[in-house]
Amino acid sequence: MTDTTMRDRASSMMRSTESNVEIFGDMLVRGFHLLALFAIGATIVWAGFHAFLDMAEQGRATIQDILLLFIYLELGAMVGIYFKTNHMPVRFLIYVAITALTRLMIESVNVEHLTSLNIVYISGAILLLALAILILRFGSNRFPSAPTSDEKSDFTDRE
Fold first, then answer.
1. Sign of the CA dihedral 102, 107, 112, 113?
2. What rounded mean pLDDT belongs to the chain?
3. Of 77, 85, 90, whose CA–CA distance to 33 is shortest?
4. Distance of CA 66 to CAs 47, 73, 103, Å?
5. Between 4 and 67, where is the model more confident?
6. How far apart are CA 46 and CA 41, in angstroms?
7. Residue 68, exposed/middle/buried by CB under 10 A (0-12, 13-18, 19+)?
8. Whole-number percent of the chain with pLDDT over 90
9. How large is the angle between the packed helices 90-110 and 117-142, nearest 10 degrees?
10. Nearest CA to 45 among 85, 82, 75, 89?
11. CA distance 64 to 54
């Protein structure tokens, strides 16, 4: 056996080993990814369920409570979309922020009876976030990203 043949075999074995290690590493990353998504989803369901139980125990639900449930709903939808598409829907994060700011504004007016400039600041922040969503929607429709081979084609609205 020549020296060149031995080098070729060693090189081929090295490429095969690297390929197997890469496949195993990809499987570990995917497994961790799925486990983390399930943990986050379960935490959202658990927190939403306990918030609902707190409302039931009080015998009433305030607008802040209902907005909190909407936040949980938006977070759950975000996890579901990320699970299906492997893309983080930036719009949903902005929806959560808008809902949280709305909840803060209602709390400031109803509980703390603040009608100062803080309300204007919160309203301005909500307006800026709404404009950000408009820009994202316009950009994703006007300049769509080309899907890669590993993306699912049934979800076309991506940021």
1. positive
2. 84
3. 85
4. 14, 11, 9
5. 67
6. 9
7. buried
8. 40
9. 160
10. 75
11. 13
